[in-house]
């Protein structure tokens, strides 16, 4: 699929449509943040390919095809349009790693549950104790951890490792939910989705892109912490809209739109509309809180929150065109 930046930026907003599911999302999703991309995008894409090959992660043709369909450097460029090339490369590498790790953890959890714990334990040991890796995935994570430590302050690197461990633990909850025959309640689905969103590990990289480290009272301000939660939820729920068709065909459970479909026993377009209402209210709360706290923030704090907003914007523009979710453009919006 080839899409120009102009086509991305002209996604319709606020127009009722009876076309595809993607058209329905475009028409009703509230997106106040305009399209942007990083000028180092092509360089980051080349860097991702080189890094994945160096650790043998794309030796499997299926993984290589997944990366081609997912385009992690594009997501990084849309999420982080003003980042310097060095931090953007770390972001792009981490996005690629997380897609590979997440897909593999889901497959292992479904088919060989006994092999999931060693896989997740290796990651935790690398992130918490800097233990030597035992697998190619572990080796790639250890190298990613090294990149973060070299570019970030010790406090930022510690926050990155903590958030990354929470993401790893979330994959275990996902596996338990997938193995349970009972219907998954929407509240539980949202909680697990928050854990496995994989967005919050990138917040310390947003901070590292600023001229200096944020003061503790600014970083841990209750409104700032709430902005981080809203950013992560909106950023991951938006791809849920576009991935719902793919996940439904694959038997996936941890998806906001599919959770609404199960809870309401309705069509996928109707479920998508219910999910959009939640996403829109989340984005509007993010805007309102940002306006409230912005006068109190330092320039670095403003840049940090702008980085959070970038994930909301970037995930939308990436999701609506990436080949990984192309089925959404073919699915009907008519219930």
Automatic annotation (TrEMBL):
InterPro entries from the UniProt entry: Amorph_synthase (IPR048138), Isoprenoid_synthase_dom_sf (IPR008949)
Alphabetized Gene3D superfamilies for the sequence: Farnesyl Diphosphate Synthase
One Pfam short name: Terpene_syn_C_2
Signal sequence range: none
Protein name per the record: Sesquiterpene cyclase
Source species taxonomy: Bacteria, Bacillati, Actinomycetota, Actinomycetes, Kitasatosporales
